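This part of the workshop introduces the protein records we will be handling. Each record describes a single protein and holds just a pair of labelled lines. Instead of coordinates, the fold is spelled out as a row of discrete tokens. To make this concrete, we reproduce a full record directly below:
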Amino acid sequence: MRNTALINDINIRTSLEPGDIGYITYLHGSINKREYGYGISFEAYVAEGLCEFYHYYQAGKGAVWICEHKNQIVGFLLLMHRAEAAQLRYFILEPEYRGIGLGTKLLELYFQFLHAHGYTASYLWTTHEQETAALLYRKFGFRLVDENFLQHLASR
């Protein structure tokens, strides 16, 4: 089913609420199973990372952007503080919400936070199946430095 929402119809909040960790884990598990055949180990990996973010969260160092439409989560992005840089993690959009500029908006918010909080570098891990996401990452200045490793240097 094609979504008729416009980007201005999407609310983007920046704090975790009860149910978010479980729902974001579910979203990754179900979408990545459907689109790429990923199994339960990937879903567990996402759950562990989200719990790590929650346990070590520090305001001004980490951030989340949770996209909602009609009180339903439809997208997500996380900035995880690492000693050496910021790590972009768990970027996902429900398929019906792709192509409306929401992914671009999330990455703009990510980089606004990154620069406002003094980060000089950012990196992410991805897989070869994530072709559309990789194109968007490259649009924002990430470059491939390893088979599953993209890096963005804020100074470009």
In short: The helical segments are 20-36, 40-56, 102-116, 131-139. The domain at 7-153 is CATH 3.40.630.30 (Aminopeptidase). Residues 20-36 form the longest helix (17 residues). The chain is about 35% helix and 25% strand.
